[in-house]
UniProtKB/TrEMBL annotation:
It comes from Oreochromis niloticus. GO terms for molecular function: transmembrane signaling receptor activity. Residues 107-190, 211-281, 285-368 form the Ig-like domain. This is Ig-like domain-containing protein. InterPro entries: Ig-like_dom (IPR007110), Ig-like_dom_sf (IPR036179), Ig-like_fold (IPR013783), Ig_Fc_receptor (IPR050488), Ig_sub (IPR003599). Residues 1-22 form the signal peptide. Keywords: Disulfide bond, Signal. GO terms for cellular component: external side of plasma membrane. It comes from the Eukaryota.
Length: 379
């Protein structure tokens, strides 16, 4: 008897439990889409209810009855801030409360450069971010100058970094959502690109002599079409030029030494160039005249050669005298060829000249050439 009563009591309790479970609906879930920790004015956000029952959105002390179990807020404002939950039709069961916070201030993107100088032949990484929030895609912009229009160099990239290899003014902008909500532009960041400078002698002469005028040039690879500011380091001077050329009139031994240059332009710069070693010889060079033969055959000619040992870039003047006591006659002026053909006997010498103004060598030693006549040699 007691055993039967115990069984009946158990069945009654189990039936009551099933009845209660059938009457109490499952607890709904409230979801904020998108699930960003920070929402800004004018963004679009949706409060969505999930559960098997007919659900309504409950906002603090206000019942919202949309036609679907979601509540879409277009162009959110601060007044939309607050706690939201989802409740069954009978309001007997509600979800946990989710809090929506809408900020009235429009966020500003932040652009960071890993370096402000792009090394020669290299690149620099830029990073764009929006503090305290997520879900952004980024647009990237570059300007050639403060007054030029911006060029978009990257659009809607999910990556928050970009690699650049050109100097300029850069900024970025974040965007998210549909329709897209954009941040304020980041503050601009100036990036300079490093290119190479080199000092070159205007004329690639292997030897420079005292009294010559020379020009050194600062050549910048990849700097064509830009306006540059130049700096020089040079021996024995406190006031080197600020232009691309370093002109030295009447060079002397004291000008010997190392010369370096560097330049800067809008978003371009160089390091100091490698040293150019200038060596100035104190002695004035002498031309050397050589005759291929000292006798001109009858009806023929002889070739004379003029040279300046150990140096280049010379043009030659040629002179002839009828005798040791007569005046010299110039028979060739400023010839690039180092040879000349003669058919008259006489005393010959030559002289080299180069540069602007012309720097002249010492005259060569004279060479006597005789002309062969009929049965005799004529001077």
């Amino acid at each position: 008897m007691g055993h039967s009563l115990l069984c009946m009591t158990g069945l009654l309790l189990l039936g009551t439990l099933f009845y209660v479970n059938a009457e109490v609906p499952n607890k709904p879930t409230v979801i904020l889409e998108p699930s960003w920790p920070q929402i800004y004015s004018s963004e679009t956000v949706t409060v969505r209810c999930e559960g098997s029952q007919s659900l309504f959105v409950w906002r603090e002390d206000e019942l919202i009855r949309p036609r679907t179990p979601e509540y879409r807020i277009s162009r959110a404002t601060e007044s939309d801030s607050g706690g939201y939950s989802c409740c069954t039709m009978s309001l007997s069961v509600c979800s946990d409360i989710i809090t929506l916070t809408v900020s009235s201030s429009k966020p500003r993107a932040t652009l960071t450069a890993h370096s402000s100088i792009i090394p020669a032949g290299g690149s620099v990484t830029l990073s764009c971010s929006v503090e305290g929030s997520a879900g952004w895609k980024f647009d990237w912009f570059r300007r050639d100058s403060q007054f030029s229009g911006a060029q978009k160099i990257g659009a809607g990239t999910s990556e928050h970094t970009i690699s650049i290899s050109e100097g300029g003014i850069y900024y970025c902008r974040g965007g998210r959502g549909d329709p897209v909500f954009s941040t304020e532009d980041s503050a601009p960041v100036t990036i300079q690109k490093q290119v190479l400078a080199a000092v070159k002698l205007q004329h690639s002469w292997s030897q420079i002599f005292t009294g010559e005028t020379i020009t050194l040039r600062c050549e910048i690879q990849g700097g064509e079409g830009k306006v540059w500011k130049y700096e020089w380091t040079a021996p024995n001077t406190n006031s080197p030029p600020t232009s691309s050329e370093y002109r030295i009139s009447r060079v002397s031994v004291s000008h010997s030494g190392d010369y370096r240059c560097r330049g800067s332009s809008d978003y371009l710069l160089t390091g100091w160039s490698d040293a150019f070693r200038l060596t100035v010889s104190s002695s004035k060079p002498r031309a050397t005249l050589t005759a291929h033969s000292s006798i001109i055959p009858a009806g023929g000619s002889v070739t004379l050669s003029c040279s300046v040992e150990g140096s280049a870039g010379w043009k030659f003047d040629w002179f002839r005298r009828d005798s040791q006591f007569s005046g010299a006659q110039k028979i060739g002026a400023g010839t690039s060829e180092h040879t000349i053909s003669i058919s008259e006997g006489g005393i010959y010498y030559c002289r080299g000249g180069r540069g602007d103004p012309v720097f002249s060598t010492e005259d060569s030693a004279p060479v006597t050439v005789q002309k062969q006549g009929e049965g005799e040699i004529l001077l």
